[in-house]
Amino acid sequence: MGRTNPTYRDALRVIEDRWSDFRRALRRRDQPRFDQLFTYAREHADASGLLNHQNPFMPALLSIDLEQEARLDSLEDRLDDLEEAREAEYDPEVDPRDGNE
Length: 101
Hints:
Elements: H1 8-18, H2 20-25, H3 31-43, H4 45-51, H5 57-89
């Protein structure tokens, strides 16, 4: 039987193992953030595997970027909603700084 090529998920596990000393050296509060980055990379493993890039770290980085971009979009939408709600609550006829209500 011929030898099978490792999957992208296998390559990602190897990368994560190589970074394990770095992870251990991180402050405890940063370790879950580090772990989350690899979670992001695993969430796009199907697309990354189809790319079949010679350096599996590159699609992992792009996957992380995509997930962080999605988080930024979500936070921006949330901020816009909060700003709109605050503007809706503010009545320009009554300025609390005037003392005239």
